[in-house]
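Long-time lurker, first post. I've been practising inverse folding by hand and with some scripts of my own, and I keep getting stuck on stretches where the structure tokens seem ambiguous. Below is the full token string for one chain I'm working on. Before anyone asks, I'm not after the true native sequence, just a reasonable design that respects the backbone. If someone could post their per-position residues I'd love to compare against what I wrote down in my notebook.
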């Protein structure tokens, strides 16, 4: 929890309480449904919560913005972002039912009113969004094919509407295959922990 306050010192008391509750909630759910790797569960705040929040260092969402998290797993990055941006609407989508069960349970326990879990393929969602976020769910050309038509043009945050994707390693070949322009933000520019040395937020505007 100290790790979150180190980089986000201006949280409200309600937000501090929600972030502090995450460890026990995920520990309980993980015992029933394994959604966070047991080998790094002790690093939940570093490897999952803070990693998710790196998106907020790249783009601040405006109140009323609508954000889709594709392949949300147990709720990363959408649940930490929903705590940080209480006036932003999130849809957390995953095709695996048990993962959505965890998102539903955690969101309910936290009292998060601004996140809607969705079980199913994102291609079947009827609505459009201002931003799409995700954490290394598939190769970028395939990912773009899934969601590009669901992003509306405009600007509902500090960057124009588009994709904000958490990924590590050398992405040059994968991004080139999309034939789109991408901006890469090194997470190590925001967070000093060694874990983030090779990790990036990859962004493109609609």
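-- Answer (accepted) --
I ran through it position by position. Result:
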């Amino acid at each position: 929890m100290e790790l979150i306050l180190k980089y986000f010192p201006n949280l409200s008391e309600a937000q501090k309480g929600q972030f502090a509750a995450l460890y026990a909630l995920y520990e309980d759910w993980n015992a029933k449904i394994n959604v966070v790797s047991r080998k790094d569960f002790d690093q939940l705040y570093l490897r999952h919560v803070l990693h998710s929040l790196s998106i907020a260092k790249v783009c601040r969402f405006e109140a009323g913005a609508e954000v889709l998290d594709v392949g949300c797993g147990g709720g990363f990055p959408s649940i930490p972002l929903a705590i940080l941006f209480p006036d932003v609407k999130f849809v957390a989508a995953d095709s695996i039912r048990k993962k959505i069960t965890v998102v539903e349970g955690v969101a309910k326990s936290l009292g998060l009113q601004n996140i809607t879990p969705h079980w199913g393929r994102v291609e079947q969602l009827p609505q459009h969004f201002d931003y799409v976020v995700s954490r290394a769910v598939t190769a970028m050309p395939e990912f773009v094919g899934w969601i590009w038509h669901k992003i509306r043009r405009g600007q509902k945050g500090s960057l124009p509407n588009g994709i904000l994707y958490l990924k590590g390693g050398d992405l040059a070949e994968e991004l080139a295959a999309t034939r789109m322009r991408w901006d890469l933000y090194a997470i190590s520019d925001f967070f000093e922990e060694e874990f983030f040395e090779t990790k990036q937020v990859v962004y493109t505007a609609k």
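A couple of notes from the structure itself: Strands lie at 66-70, 89-94, 115-119, 131-135, 162-168, 183-186, 199-205. The longest helix spans residues 13-32. Happy to go over any region you disagree with.
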